[in-house]
Amino acid sequence: MDQEVFDDNKIEHIPINEIRPNPYQPRKHFNEHALEDLAQSIVQHGVMQPIVVRKSIKGYTLVAGERRLKASRMAKKTTIPAIIKQITDEEMMVLSIIENLQRENLTAIEEAESYQQLMTHLELTQVEVAEKLGKSRPYVANMLRLLALPSRIQKLITSGKLSSAHGRTLLPLKEEDVMMTVAQKSMRENWSVRTLEKYVNDFVFRAPRKESVTQKPKLIRQYEAQLKDLYGATVDIAVVKKTGRITFEFTSEEEFKRLIDELSNKE
Questions:
Q1: Locate the ParB-like N-terminal domain: which residues (predicted)?
Q2: Active-site residue 128, yes or no?
């Protein structure tokens, strides 16, 4: 589908004021300085790559090319080169996300929200979303975990003050105020993800009594990390004498159902 959409299409110049925004656009933040630079380029050279639109009852609906459309408006253009497509809502949604992912324009939170949007509106599983977008299932699962973070932590990630990996590492802390305190300490002291993970683990699993905590063997910690990457969830492996326990942590009913589905379908 993705390749066919852009091949062998006629380019037309259509009125900009007849183009409505894409309702499935995952990107919410646009760099104003970059838009101004693009607008200046359009003034000098025109729009080098056509946008993609879908014909609607009145005018057109944008499918791909919002930056070019915004910059063209800034450049006071009245028309814009466009390819007019006959596509479904599903194709429109997927194309919007793919364009932004390929251009690396989405923030981590916007990317996670786009995956959630596909799952909700198209009733897709994480596996199906991964297949449609050419991503691995664990990658999609890890991105979706960001949506379980409080909005204040999400804003730190969106602004670039905190990485998405740091954000996911904060999830076991559960309480928003605790997350913010630790996040600020991490940013202030420029912690690596590994340093933050050790701090969070020590914080979460700290014994209430003055008892020595035995460090887990390196092999066990490696297995925990492998399972975490595979299933996109925090994993704890505990071994007492000859009895072992593997615990998967989830933060919502949806994540619980996702884990059950993943565990049930593993070959």
A1: 12-101
A2: no
pLDDT for residue 161: 93
**Are 81 and 12 contacting, i.e. CB atoms less than 8 angstroms apart?**
yes
Q: Which helix (H) or strand (E) holds 14?
A: strand 11-15
- Under 8 Å CB-to-CB from 3, ≥6 apart: which residues? none
| CATH class held by domain 2-88 | alpha beta
From residue 242, alpha-carbon distances to 73, 131, 212 in Å are: 69, 40, 21
Spatial separation of the C-alpha atoms in residues 66 and 16, rounded to whole Å: 12
For helices 218-231 and 137-144, angle between their N-to-C axes, nearest 10 degrees: 90
Q: Give CB contacts under 8 A, 24+ apart, made by 152-156.
A: 152/176, 152/180, 153/179, 153/180, 153/183, 154/109, 156/183, 156/187
For residues 142-172, b (16+ Cβ closer than 10 Å) or e, as one string?
bbbbbbbbbeebbebbbeeebbbbbbbbbbb
- Return the structure tokens found at 14: 């259509």
pLDDT in tens, 9-51: 688 999 999 999 888 777 777 778 888 999 999 999 999 889 9
Q: How is residue 238 written in tokens? A: 């505990």
Select which of 4, 12, 18, 66 is catalytic: 66
Q: CA dist 43 to 31, 83, 139, Å?
A: 18, 21, 40
